[in-house]
Amino acid sequence: MNYNNSHSRDKAQKIIVPELAGRRRFILACFMLVMCALIYRAIDLQVLNNSYLQKRGEAVHLRDIKLPAYRGKILDADGHALAISAPVSSVWINPQELDLTGKKGEFAALLGLKVSSLNKKLKKVASRRFVYLRRHMDPQVAATIDNLNLPGVYLQKEYRRYYPDGEVASHLVGFTNIDDEGQEGLELALNDQLKGVAGVERVLRDGKRRMVKHVDDIRAPIPGTDIHLSLDRRLQYLAYRELKSAVAQHKANAGSLVLLNPKTGEVLAVANQPAFNPNDRSKFKASHVRNRAFIDVFEPGSTMKPFTVVASMESGVFDTSTIIDTNPGYMKVGRNQVRDHRNYGEINLATLLLKSSNVAAAKIALGIPPEGLWGMLNSLGFGRSAHLGFPGEARGRLVGYEQWRPIETATLSFGYGLSMSALQLAHGYAAIANDGLLEPVSLLRNNQVGGGVQVMSPVVAQQVRHMLKGVVSKAGTAPRARVHGYTIAGKTGTVKKAIAGGYSEDKYLGIFAGMAPANDPKLVMVVVIDEPKAGDYYGGLVAAPVFSRVMTGALRLMNIAPDDLKQSAVLASLERGLQ
Predict the structure, then answer these.
(1) Predicted model pTM
(2) Is 315 a catalytic residue?
(3) Catalytic residue among 85, 89, 170, 302, which?
(4) Could you tell me if 490 and 558 lie in one domain?
(5) Is 173 a domain residue?
(6) pLDDT in tens, 405-427
């Protein structure tokens, strides 16, 4: 029985074994075919036709990098830099790749952080892939960080804006933000011209995102355009220094100064107080950043009287020989009263300006058609923008003459009921200085002369200019505006500031507007001192001395010859006596 069973199993095995052997040979043959196919494919891809893998590998590691464009410089009239860009580096991280093992303390120190502060920052951004840790670092410090070879830490080339003169020209030049975009002043107004066009570079990075090699320049960066201003750096510093000193001396809230070339309309200097340092953004205050000379408006007070006189002479109703009766020192206009400081009696137009008579100004304004006075003020640009393109530039306010009542005509004649900026007031005086030809005001160098408008006759401009010489005499309101060796023409203004319900009795603006040399003016200047609190507040006492000091330096720096030969001879004699 056992023999038969054993015999059966042997027979079955002989039948099964050939079947299993056939299957094995089939499976082995399949494996061999697959192996051969893989070997062939590997040889094909890596030896015979390797371009495919190269392209795939490069596609993984090729990156297009933005190349920042160099921002154009802002230069003064002589080519001195007022704003330039310096190369810097910014440090950013990919928290997903970051590994600071053993080097966290050194890394934090280079960033100027404590380890605890760095840990807090990293914890907050752990889920992100791009985070700036430090912008605009010193390139040498950034290079030290780069040498640490920390995974997930990268450098980015950028430019940082730098202002060599600090706060001296800050209100005009303005500043950029950390991304090099203009935020205030000319940096904002001319941002499109200054910023240029960023370039693009294609590079090959390794697995740690480090650049292996430069592949291609897709687009080269296009630098921004350099801007040449009409500003004279020497005059700007002089204006800044003297205005700052005056504001401190008189404990004033603020101050503004504008210096123009009346022949071309070019702005040579513009200063404001308080000022700010555009290189230190940590101390910015909104009130300090504002360019008051272009943006803030005020009622001009008695500095408006020369324009009232011009309008009266242009009307043909008044001339230099006309006598105006100001007795008894005040006049009724409807239910209101216009007053002088004292009774000046019968005076002519020159004395009106010399003594700054409100009564005489009101009488001549009421004695001519209102459209004549409005037309003169409108032609001088009052109530309209000067079209400088400066951010926030003031339009001022000049109501149409159809809405004037007699009292409004009267008060307008001595500078109440309209408003303007220091720039607009200086521009108006530039017309008197330039024999009635009003050139467009400009902030750019080499302003093209020829676009001016004749807003008053040359004869009238010269006559009014001659009258304004008396204002700076000992008998006038601004003897402190005089400059040795030069004739000066100008006008003071002491303005009560408007408050809710009327005008303040203890808050004033002290103003002086003038030109030199008066016989053929090359410079026009307006000085405004806002709310002086140290005692004096009259324009002839707080603003006129600033005019004198700045104009003295400006005339010498610009090599403008003295035109008061008699005074020059006396001064030369005194100088010889001191030697």
Answers:
(1) 0.82
(2) no
(3) 302
(4) yes
(5) yes
(6) 999 999 999 999 999 999 999 99
